[in-house]
Amino acid sequence: MTNVLFVSAEVAPFAKVGGLADVAGSLPKALRQAGVDVRVVMPLYGFLDLQRYQIEPLFTFDLPRPSGTTVVEVLRTVYDTVPLYFLRGWPFFGAETNVYGDWEWDSPRFIFFNQAVLALADALRDRDDWFPDVFHVNDWHTGLIPFLLETKRAEPGWEHAGSMLSIHNMAYQGDNVGGWLWQEQIPPRDHPELVARGLVSNMLAIAITYSDIVSTVSPRYAVEIQYPYMGYGLDELLRTRIDALHGILNGIDLDQWNPATDPLLIENYDADNFLEKRVVNKRQLQADSGLEVRDDVPIITLVSRLVFQKGIDIAVPALRRLLLDTDVQFIALGSGEPDLQDQLYRLGRDFHWRASVFLGYNATVAQRIYGGADLFLMPSRYEPCGVGQMLAMRYGALPLVRETGGLADTVENYDDGPADRGTGFTFLFEEPDALLSTIRWALNTYWERRDAWVRMQRRAMNVDFSWDRSARQYADLYARASAKWKG
Fold first, then answer.
1. Angle ∠(381,385,388) on CA atoms, nearest 5
2. Is residue 207 part of a domain?
3. Rounded to an integer, what distance in angstroms lies between the CA atom of residue 331 and that of residue 326?
4. Do 298 and 446 have their domain in common?
5. Residue 115 C-beta-side C-alpha neighbours within 13 Å
6. How many CB atoms lie within 10 A of CB 486?
7. Structural domains counted in the chain
8. H/E element holding 436?
9. Which of 290, 334, 351, 420 keeps 20 to 30 A from 174, CA to CA?
10. What is the rounded average pLDDT for all residues in the chain?
């Protein structure tokens, strides 16, 4: 059995900002079922409800640093069979209320977290006789760990530890952290590939260079980030690791996301009875949104972070033109960049009889959107994997997505016929016209080819988005990373 320490800045349900938290919260459970002894470690944020999640103090250890010794508190819980460790150390973790802050705050505190994780591994070996065969790090926040492993290989007990990096979003890199690395007396990152490209102070680049295995969260994204338009300056570096690069599609927890048992739905249903029962959830969604309750009108929805990546500025102009002349309803839920929030808010205000916009995040509203929507939009400029389209399909809402990353890997385009193929609708060009024409195509299918629409709904609900296959792929890669150092 392989021992794996899964290291993440966010883990659902404890702390969530994006898709990383969903992966860190559900993949380890599947890994344990696949025979991997995986344990998760994350920072302890001040907003965590320790009592709710039965997070209890475990032990403390001293972490010597150039600025002085920091006392690191280790807390622990078990959630969905997975042991989780939480690290608290002043001033970086324990008091603040946000997962992420600005560059000048996040850079030094996540460097500290990386150092504390390696010290935790030493402490767990001494205390519990457990030590990682592989450190699985995720995104830039934990990207220093593979390099720190290299600096410790001469120490007894560290010579056999491997590392694996998962890239969840190439756009966020933790760059220009050299000053903080120097303050912490981190040795120079003198790998020729980093030096030649001026990337010795880029946390994600460091992780790409020193990890034994590099993975991404979908096969398509693993290809896309090798090119400048999605590599964000690291495409050349990534191509030097092509033999170590793997794309593994994310999954979802089918026990948690199940319309047959979801307590937030008004009426539960499955792929066999959704035609009769799902409409009750549609009516409730309309009522909750202040819209006219009608079974015959198609509901178009969007649940998203409101950021440039998600293509909101592509969607709003297209939706404005659609709502002017088409008998549809639109419901959105999200928060993010002020300008995009304002665009979406004004859309809801200007078409208040057809549109409703919820700013912020509400789990109940999100679930009911999945359970009552007809069409679910994800017009992302890029999408490493995406979860929304999988949840929509699981709940019987057909996704309409841009053909990129994990969206292309998970949504099969409608065949424009009897639906012998298809689980949704796709478009390619990053333009409002492309999105609008695809929405009109989907609506025409909804109105004129109802049998095809229902066939796609049933097919979409039956797609296996479980973590089982992906967990086995991760387990194989862990074995490879471990074998490299164990000979």
1. 85
2. yes
3. 15
4. yes
5. 24
6. 11
7. 2
8. helix 432-448
9. 334
10. 96
Residue 67 banded pLDDT, cuts 50, 70, 90:
confident
> Residue 153 half-sphere exposure, CB side, CA atoms within 13 Å?
13
The verdict on 359 and 475 lying in the same domain is: no
- Would you say how long the chain is, in residues? 487
Residue 213 — φ and ψ, nearest 5°? -130, 140
Which residues have C-beta within 8 Å of that of residue 454, sequence separation ≥ 6?
A: 275
Helices (H) and strands (E) in the chain, counts: 18, 15
Residues 456 and 478 in one domain: no
State the Cα–Cα distance between residues 104 and 177, nearest whole angstrom. 9
**111-126 pLDDT, tens per residue?**
999 999 999 999 999 9
Tokens in use for 79? 């959630």
Q: In whole angstroms, give the CA distance from residue 94 to residue 87.
A: 8
Amino acid at 443: L
| Contact status, residue 120 vs residue 76, Cβ threshold 8 Å | no
Same domain (yes/no): 458, 473 = no
Number of other residues whose CB lies within 10 A of the CB of residue 78: 11
Tell me, what CATH number does 119's domain have?
A: 3.40.50.2000
Specify whether the CB–CB gap between 346 and 334 falls below 8 A.
no
What pLDDT, in 10s, does the model give residues 343-370? 999 999 999 999 999 999 888 999 999 9
Question: Residues 439, 231, 408, CA angle at the centre, nearest 5°?
Answer: 30
One domain for residues 330 and 194: no
Within 6-93, where are the H helices? 19-33
pTM exceeds cut of 0.70: yes
Same domain, 425 and 478: no
Distance CA 321, CA 131 (A): 58
Q: How is residue 74 annotated by DSSP? A: E
H/E stretch holding 196 = helix 192-197
Return the pLDDT at 17: 87
Domain of 286 in residue numbering reads as 274-462
Q: Are residues 323 and 242 in the same domain?
A: no
Tokens 């035609």, located at residue: 275
From CA 272, how far away is CA 486, in angstroms rounded?
Answer: 50
